[in-house]
């Protein structure tokens, strides 16, 4: 199969060309300034052909939540986000009981690296319960607890299914957990944390390599007696070993701060995420729950029902890319890189997917100049066409 005459979003540039697909992989990428007169295939003139997006942090959509731990919920969530250009994702848990988290893991294991008809489920991001009560955000404080080996070892028995865990490094036992996560090949992410630089230096030495939804639910500059020390925000922005997640709705992080992060980390130091909750895809005013916490959809995002705080987003990844480009003025090639190549690299799977290059999985999204998705391919199979 050939996808002809597309504006290809390649790792470093946007160029006109054709992609040849064979056995679910990209066989060849032909770059040409002019249309070829030979060859047959699907004509993609107009718009852009990008690598399928990879979302490291996604709770739900269309009224369904990962914590339901049901096949129908996983199917509807992944089908919804596939239509937004996401071809690989990590289902993300909330702070809740050990039993509920294990229920998600046991079911997700059946579909590890597979598709239920939507995005490929490449793993599970365990967000909480090992977080700070001071930075709980929209997580339930009643279930927050310190990391105990008797609990977290049960999660790590799932091996590579656990792609990421969000931890507050200041909690007792957190440093040992970070070491265990990295030994498991899991992203160790600082988030929902009130840690200062002395603790964060120890965490980085133990393997902390990621920051959960940067700017949100994390410490900033702190006072230590008459002095000031960096918090998680400043530490992540200035540490080259830490990849920063960015909720790309221009609401959780306003455009000025999005640009601050971009200037600090560059295009290779940021992963766009949706942090989409069950409210994604629902009409403004609709209410939904984050386990025991009630929330509602607004025109731009999701908030706690009383309006006192944010409650994840209502994004699809294509909408996140659009807002990065139109509101924060990121170059399109860089915004796409942050939504595909960078998260694939953080997962240790950049040689499989996340870019339009020979040998990669043919996970592709075609969208127009208005950021409307026109088609999505997964392993070379057309899974959605508008």
Features:
386 residues, alpha/beta, nine-stranded mixed β-sheet, four-stranded mixed β-sheet, 24 strands, TIM Barrel, globular
Find the CATH topology: TIM Barrel
Helical segment tally?
Answer: 10
The CATH H-level superfamily is Metal-dependent hydrolases
Instruction: Tell me the number of structural domains.
Output: 1
Radius of gyration: 20 Å
General form:
globular
Spatial gap, N to C terminus: 19 Å
List segments where confidence is low: pLDDT < 50 over at least 5 consecutive residues: none
Number of strands: 24
Question: What is the strand content?
Answer: 25-35%
Describe the structure in your own words.
- The structure is a single chain.
- By secondary structure, the protein is of the alpha/beta class.
- The protein has one domain: TIM Barrel (Alpha-Beta Barrel), CATH 3.20.20.140.
- 25% of the residues lie in helices and 29% in strands.
- The strands form six sheets. Strands 6, 9, 10, 11, 12, 13, 14, 17 and 18 form a nine-stranded mixed sheet that branches. The protein has a four-stranded mixed sheet with strand order 3-2-1-4. It has a four-stranded antiparallel sheet with strand order 5-22-23-24, with no helix packed on it.
- Helix 8 packs antiparallel against helix 9.
- The longest helix has 13 residues.
- It is globular, with a radius of gyration of 20 Å.
- The chain starts with a strand and ends with a strand.
């Amino acid at each position: 199969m050939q996808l002809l005459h597309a504006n290809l979003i390649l790792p470093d540039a946007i160029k006109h060309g054709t992609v040849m697909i064979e056995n679910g992989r990209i066989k060849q990428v032909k770059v040409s300034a002019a249309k070829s007169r030979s060859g047959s295939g699907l004509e993609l003139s107009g718009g852009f052909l990008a690598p399928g997006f990879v979302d490291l942090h996604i709770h739900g959509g269309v009224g369904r939540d990962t914590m339901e731990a049901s096949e129908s919920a996983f199917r509807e969530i992944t089908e919804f986000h596939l239509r937004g250009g996401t071809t690989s994702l990590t289902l993300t848990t909330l702070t809740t009981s050990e039993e509920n988290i294990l229920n998600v893991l046991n079911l997700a294991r059946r579909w590890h690296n597979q598709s239920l008809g939507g995005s490929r489920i490449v793993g599970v991001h365990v967000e909480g319960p090992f977080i700070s009560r001071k930075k709980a955000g929209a997580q339930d404080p009643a279930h927050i607890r310190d990391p105990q080996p008797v609990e977290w070892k049960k999660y790590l028995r799932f091996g590579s299914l656990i792609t990421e865990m969000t931890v507050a490094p200041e909690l007792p036992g957190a440093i040992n957990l970070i070491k265990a996560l990295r030994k498991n090949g899991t992203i160790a992410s600082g988030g929902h944390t009130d840690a200062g630089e002395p603790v964060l230096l120890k965490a980085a030495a133990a393997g902390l390599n990621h920051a959960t939804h940067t700017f949100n639910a994390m410490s900033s500059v702190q006072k230590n007696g008459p002095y000031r020390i960096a918090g998680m925000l400043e530490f992540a922005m200035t540490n080259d070993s830490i990849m920063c997640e960015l909720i790309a709705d221009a609401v959780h992080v306003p455009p000025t701060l999005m640009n601050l992060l971009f200037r600090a980390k560059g295009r290779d130091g940021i992963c766009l995420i949706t942090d989409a909750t069950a409210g994604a895809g629902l009409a403004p005013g609709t209410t939904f729950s984050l386990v025991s916490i009630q929330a509602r959809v607004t025109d731009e995002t999701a908030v706690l029902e009383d309006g006192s705080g944010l409650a994840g987003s209502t994004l699809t990844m294509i909408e996140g890319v659009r807002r990065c480009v139109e509101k924060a003025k990121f170059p399109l090639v860089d915004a796409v890189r942050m939504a595909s190549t960078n998260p694939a690299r953080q997962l240790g799977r950049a040689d499989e997917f996340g870019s339009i290059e020979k040998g990669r999985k043919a996970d592709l999204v075609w969208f127009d100049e208005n950021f409307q998705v026109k088609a999505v391919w997964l392993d070379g199979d057309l899974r959605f066409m508008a």
